[in-house]
Design brief:
Blueprint lengths: L1 E4 L17 H7 L4 E4 L1 H4 L9 E4 L3 H5 L4 E4 L6 H17 L4 E4 L10 E3 L7 E3 L3 H8 L3 E4 L8 H4 L5
Length: about 160
């Protein structure tokens, strides 16, 4: 089983009500069972919703209660991001998921680079809240940006 950001499959769960459908991801995963997730929806946020970013800290700081996620209006939406991350982790544990392919740059799903909290489009090193929690619990996380440099068939060879 592969955990995947639902927006990459074409589900309209992106903050603005759209999707991030990625035909390459769809092609690669056609032969593999997937569990689509949107941690922000799992956490209780609506679609559409105001964009949000992690403010002046890391995802690990947020998970430890030492940071926050704020939306464009300045509202603290941390509890939704944390709740959604734990719901995603619960699904990963129920289905013994070892691999996740999540949306790059997202405050939930980003891996390696996320928006810097200024709502200016600038990036900083770091992970989204869900990605950080999954990694801390042994799930290997990739993004759709890893497509060009990853041997997916080798990685996704799983005995069913």
């Amino acid at each position: 089983m592969v955990l995947i950001s639902a927006c990459l499959l074409g589900v309209c769960c992106k903050y603005n009500g759209g999707d991030n459908k990625n035909n390459e991801v769809l092609k690669i995963l056609k032969k593999h069972p997937v569990i689509p997730i949107c941690p922000e929806q799992l956490g209780g946020l609506s679609t559409p919703r105001k964009p949000a970013e992690i403010q002046a800290c890391s995802a690990d700081d947020v998970l430890k209660g030492n940071g926050k996620v704020v939306n464009l209006d300045g509202n603290d939406v941390t509890e939704y991001f944390i709740r959604g991350a734990y719901e995603a982790l619960k699904l990963a544990q129920i289905y013994d998921v070892k691999i996740a392919i999540l949306k790059s740059k997202s405050p939930s799903c980003g891996c390696g680079l996320i928006y810097d909290g200024s709502f200016s489009g600038k990036l900083k090193e770091g992970n989204g809240i869900t990605t950080e929690l999954l990694i801390q619990n042994g799930v290997k996380v990739y993004t759709e940006k890893d497509l060009e440099k990853t041997d997916w068939e080798k990685i996704l060879k799983i005995d069913y």
